[in-house]
Design brief:
The complex is a heterodimer of chains A (260) and B (196).
Chain A (H helix, E strand, L loop, with lengths): L2 H13 L4 H13 L1 H21 L6 H24 L8 H17 L17 H4 L6 H14 L20 H13 L11 H22 L4 E3 L5 H7 L10 E3 L6 H5 L1
Antiparallel strand pairs in A: 1-2
Chain B lengths: L1 H19 L3 H23 L2 H17 L10 H22 L5 H7 L1 H4 L8 H19 L3 H12 L4 H8 L3 H19 L6
Helix pairs in contact in B: 1-2, 2-3, 2-4, 3-4, 4-9, 5-7, 7-10, 8-10, 9-10
The chains are: A mainly alpha (260), B mainly alpha (196).
Chain lengths: 260, 196
């Protein structure tokens, strides 16, 4: 083995990477060559020095500190678990979410408009019955039929949203509208019928209502006002003819209505 | 030797599995087994005891929280050292960014901890050894990072080429090449003042 080759293999020799024949060859050369012997001694010293650098003991409290930190970490995790699932049994998150969404939809999205409370609702009176205080049962029946056919599920029949007036209108248009409005009697309008006559109208109303209920014979439909009709008439907030407005029963589920 | 190593790996595998199931006692055993190596590696890289302690602690914490990502294909020790190396290197980078106290001065503070004197050397010999250790540490610090980390893992921590390749994410051939070049450069760095 020559000096160049020996120098190249000195580190591998110190590192224990050489095989038996290579070790023998290197040691034989080093015995004869002083320079290579010096290089080998230096390499060994470096190796020993590096190995000593590796003989380090960790501080005694390291393992204890790690353990304490891990216990704290686990404690925090279990604390969070208690917050998010305080019950002894598990409720799937999906079930909880769907229940929440269901309640939200029922309470907020599905509209509950108690009659006469919404500012957008107006109860119109059928003109065919309005002026006939002595309307015959056949009149009532036809009016009721009209109301029945015009009714859609979940919507108030004969309901009109107030529309804003167009900016520019001719006088003739305005007059026509005025006449039209007069024809339509709303709950907010004062009845032109005198108080004496009103009592008669009320009596008549009860009779008509009975007929209408008999005509429909449907349990899920109640005349406007329903059980509230007496109070409405006593307070004179509902005029004659308002019995023609029919409300599906399922709209009366709102707690706000029940409170009335 | 091989049998011992295999038994050690099997024991690690059991403790790792138990730790994954939340057994802190099992993880304690792993900490006790590897704390010296992890602390030592961190100390060689960052050069001061305080940072090395923080890194070692952080390494074990990270290892515990990320234990589910550890695949049993590699040795646990290799995985642990890789975490420590990455933490130590990022600490160094951060320190360089902040122009922190130079590495050399800090290492001198922890010198007594690092010194492991041979049995029975006289005071003069201890002094010479200490001087040489200083020289060696300074020379190591001046090496390029890729050589330095290879030498730390091989010559200081005594890991195999394959383990180092796994830790550094490079081929074993590249590891060997870096170690050889690193050793040659280390010798040059020590210069003529080399104390024999």
């Amino acid at each position: 083995m020559k000096c160049g080759e020996t120098r190249n293999k000195i580190n591998d020799y110190c590192d224990g990477e050489l095989n038996a024949s290579q070790i023998q060859a290197l040691e034989a050369h080093v015995l004869k060559c002083a320079d290579c012997a010096k290089a080998l001694a230096e390499a060994r010293k470096i190796f020993d020095g590096l190995q000593k650098m590796g003989q380090v003991k960790a501080p005694e409290n390291l393992a204890g500190d790690v353990r304490r930190k891990l216990e704290t970490l686990q404690g925090k995790k279990s604390g969070l678990k208690k917050i998010f699932s305080p019950l002894p049994f598990k409720i799937p998150l999906e079930l909880a979410a769907s229940l929440l969404i269901g309640v939200f939809i029922y309470r907020v999205i599905v509209p509950h408009h108690p009659i006469g409370k919404s500012p957008h609702l107006e109860v119109k009176v059928d003109p065919s019955v309005r002026d006939k205080t002595d309307a015959s049962p056949s009149d009532i029946k036809s009016a009721a039929e009209n109301a029945k056919t015009s009714m859609q599920p979940g919507l108030l029949p004969l309901v009109k949203e107030p529309s804003p007036m167009p900016k520019e209108k001719s006088d003739a248009d305005l007059n026509r509208e005025h006449i039209q409005e007069k024809k339509e009697m709303t709950v907010s309008e004062e009845s032109p019928i005198s108080s004496r006559k009103r009592t008669e109208v009320q009596k008549d109303f009860y009779e008509k209502e009975k007929s209408v209920s008999a005509v429909f014979g449907q349990k899920d439909m109640v005349p406007a006002g329903g059980s509230l009709k007496e109070a409405a008439f006593r307070d004179q907030t509902v005029q004659e003819g308002s019995f023609l407005v029919f409300i599906p029963k399922n709209l009366w589920r709102s707690p706000r209505c029940l409170r009335r | 030797m091989e049998v011992e190593k295999r038994e050690g790996l099997e024991q690690d595998r059991i403790w790792v599995q138990q730790s994954r199931e939340g057994d802190l006692e099992a993880f304690d055993r792993l900490v006790l087994k590897y704390q010296d190596r992890i602390y030592g590696t961190a100390l060689q890289i960052v050069g001061n005891r305080e940072d090395a302690y923080d890194i070692a602690q952080e390494t074990f914490m990270k290892a515990y929280t990320k234990l589910h990502t550890f695949r049993q294909e590699a040795a646990f020790s290799t995985w642990l050292i890789r975490i420590a190396m990455n933490l130590a290197k990022s600490k160094l980078r951060w320190r360089k960014l902040r122009n922190f106290i130079p590495f050399i001065q800090e290492t001198q503070e922890g010198e007594e901890e690092l010194q492991v004197p041979d049995k029975g050397p006289g005071p003069e010999e201890i002094l010479m050894q200490r001087e040489f250790q200083d020289q060696l540490r300074n020379a190591l610090e001046r090496l390029p990072e890729e050589y330095r980390e290879a030498i730390i893992l091989r010559d200081i921590q005594g890991l195999s080429y394959d383990e180092i390749a796994g830790i550094l994410g490079i081929q074993p051939g590249t590891v060997k090449s870096r170690i050889n070049r690193g050793r040659i450069q280390l010798r040059k760095e020590l210069g003529e003042d080399f104390v024999l």
